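sorry for the late reply, my laptop died twice this morning and i had to redo everyting from scratch. anyway the thing you sent over, i finally got around to it. pasting the sequence first so we're on the same page, its 156 residues, then the predicted structure underneath. double check i copied it right bc i was rushing
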Amino acid sequence: MYIGCNPFAPAIGEGDPFGDLFGDPTTVDGYFMNFRNAYELRDVSFYESLIDSSFVFVYVDFDTGVEREWGFGQELESTRRLFENSVEIQLQWRQIITRQVYNDGRNAIAVRGFNLTVGLDNGEVFRGDGNVNFLLSRADTTRAWRLIRWRDESEL
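ok and here's the structure:
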């Protein structure tokens, strides 16, 4: 006779079924884990919880050589479209180039490499890599980090 566990109702003491899925939002490493999971799960509500309402995304328009930016609303809309039009997203964080926590642990700058693969529903696959430069903030050290500014340091 085979006796297995029910993944929908694990027995007490089997551990947290989401323990490997969600990072501690009060740590920078936990923030990056949650960011990756929001992308890979393609969950815009989860993603929204990671960015601040004052959020700004900054990137270089390679066609014109001009630095451009957008805010919270446009970020959510573009991310929603990305998530809806993809069948799979894989985000791999690479090395941390810079990590600095300051202002009594209420702000942090993290520059980190990444590899991103996006599979679209029409079969196309896009790959990109580069660096993100994140400015994270929180009200106090017991609170979750939220993304204030994302400077894209990717290259075409």
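The longest helix spans residues 28-41.
thats about all i looked at so far, will dig more tmrw
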